[in-house]
Amino acid sequence: MKIGIVGTGHVGSTAAYSLVLQGVGSELILVDQNHELDEAHVMDILHATPFSRRPLVLHSGDFSDLRGCTLFILAALRHPVDAATAGRHT
């Protein structure tokens, strides 16, 4: 099963890590506006793949890479978090 996660902040990256450890899916794609962030999470999570229940393909990408996904996890904010206003609801 191909799974796409949009948004690789705390929620998206934790969901990806959990899916990898549980052996859910055969391919996992992380997509974020900050491409450096999703690539960093891919590298971190790849360190956990030896402990996963089955092998899977894990990579970062863009929205076009989500074509054919069976499952989507939407963990993106509607706007970037500003440290000065974090915790305030707008």
Commentary on this structure:
- A four-stranded parallel sheet has the order 3-2-1-4, covered by helices on one side.
- It is globular, with a radius of gyration of 13 Å.
- It has one domain: Rossmann fold.
- It has two helices and four strands, in the order E-H-E-H-E-E.
- It has helices at 10-22, 35-46, and strands at residues 2-6, 27-31, 57-60, 71-74.
- It is α/β, with parallel strands linked by helices.
Class inferred from helices and paired strands? alpha/beta
CATH class identity: Alpha Beta
Low-pLDDT parts are none
Gross geometry? globular
Major beta-sheet overview: 4 strands, parallel
CATH homologous superfamily heading: NAD(P)-binding Rossmann-like Domain
Number of strands: 4
The proportion of residues forming helix, as a percent range, comes to 25-40%
CATH architecture grouping: 3-Layer(aba) Sandwich
How many structural domains does the protein architecture include?
1
The DSSP helix count reads 2
CATH-derived topology: Rossmann fold
Taken in chain order, the helices and strands follow as EHEHEE
**Beta-strand residue percentage:** 15-25%
Radius of gyration: 13 Å
Estimate the mean pLDDT confidence.
Answer: 85
Distance between the termini: 37 Å
Strand order of the largest sheet: 3-2-1-4
Characterize the quaternary organization of these chains: single chain
